[in-house]
Design a protein that fits this description.
It is a single chain. This protein is an alpha+beta fold. The chain is built from seven helices and 23 strands. The protein has a domain of 218 residues: FAD/NAD(P)-binding domain (3-Layer(bba) Sandwich). The radius of gyration is 20 Å and the shape is globular.
């Protein structure tokens, strides 16, 4: 007999991908421990949620709880991409126009974690994961600042940190030139952005502006040559607003891990693959990948599905989605004569 199993699933990372994985596993009757190193969610880009996320929010059990975290709803975005400005609607059906969400990410992430707790997930926050327990066929749990936690399956939801991938030595080769965004927030009034976000792109790069909650606006800037604006820079339309704190930066070079799942472990969200924010699917991809991983984990641990088969199915599914988004985004950038994309 081996050591007793402390939990079925250990999820490392409490963002949308990690919380979605934990929720999907918990509703299937699995024991889940979720580790998040930070006590409070921090400011981060990715506040615009596509309307396609609504049925997923319902499945996660938070669709009727979104009001406190939503700063605005809109039925499309303005795009000025190497030419004239146009409005790009999300679409419509018999019920009317589809509307996206502008959310405050810290509150949205906290909402997902609260839902996971309701379902019995053991959320350990703040708690730093320091390593893995080596098993005969891969990770058999994690080591943390609070002690050792054996687990039947380990999930990496640590985003760009790629904790498990780095620990296991799994490469995540770049699929684009080095892309680096700088982003910041400002307070005041900008009525144009209350109605819909704006994406402006030309041969030098792109700038995104949006209202993320009443009187609070966010901007993101990516320069194709890798340069960064001064730390006190803001878009012209926000020049009359008051900055809140210093701007921040993030590496958003396109990457996908050579392996995103093997028997005993999965990577979800940005830990598995990352595209820059113009893909517009970052949070959606995080949540769908977490829910998909949770479904497959449930099939393995509850229904006896072959672990290798589940890992292959996830690998093929994630790669197909990532490659389709990368192809679409590459064409989008080639319209601005951006080179070096694969």
């Amino acid at each position: 007999m081996g050591a007793p199993i402390a939990t079925d699933v250990a999820v490392v990372g409490g963002g949308p991908a990690g919380s979605a994985t934990a929720i999907a596993c918990a509703v299937r009757g699995l024991r889940v421990v979720l580790f998040e190193r930070d006590l409070f969610a921090s400011e981060r880009p990715g506040e615009t949620l596509h309307p396609g996320i609504e049925p997923l929010l319902a499945q996660l059990g938070i669709a009727d709880r979104m009001s406190p975290v939503v700063g605005a709803r809109h039925n499309g975005i303005w795009i000025e991409w190497g030419g004239s400005r146009r409005f790009d609607p999300f679409g419509a059906d018999d019920s009317g126009p589809w509307t996206g969400f502008q959310v405050w990410r810290a509150d949205f992430d906290a909402l997902l974690i609260r839902r996971a707790r309701e379902l019995g997930v053991d959320v350990r926050q703040p708690c730093t994961v320091t390593g893995i327990i080596d098993g005969p066929d891969g990770p058999a749990g994690v080591t943390t600042a609070e002690g050792v936690v054996p687990a039947r399956i380990v999930v990496d939801a640590t985003g760009r940190t790629r904790w498990l991938g780095r620990t296991l030595g799994i490469a995540s080769p770049s699929r684009s030139p080095r892309f680096f965004v700088r982003y910041g927030y400002a307070k005041g009034a900008c009525p144009e952005r209350e109605r819909a976000p704006l994406l402006v792109g030309n041969a030098s790069g792109w700038t995104w502006t949006a209202m993320v909650r009443p009187d609070t606006y966010q901007w993101t800037r990516l320069a194709f040559d890798g340069s960064q604006p001064p730390r006190d820079w803001m878009p012209d339309e926000f020049c009359h607003l008051t900055p809140t704190g210093r701007s921040r930066g993030a590496d958003v070079t396109w990457r996908m891990a050579d392996a995103v799942a093997k028997p005993g472990w999965f990577m979800v969200g940005d830990a598995a693959g990352i595209l820059d924010p113009t893909s517009s699917h970052g949070v959606l991809r995080a949540i769908v990948s977490g829910m998909t991983a949770g479904h497959l984990i449930g099939a393995v641990l509850r229904s006896g599905a072959p672990p290798a088969g589940a890992a292959i199915a996830y690998q093929e599914w994630f790669a197909a989605w990532f490659n389709a988004d990368a192809t679409r985004l590459s064409q989008f950038y080639r319209n601005l004569n951006v080179v070096g994309l694969t």
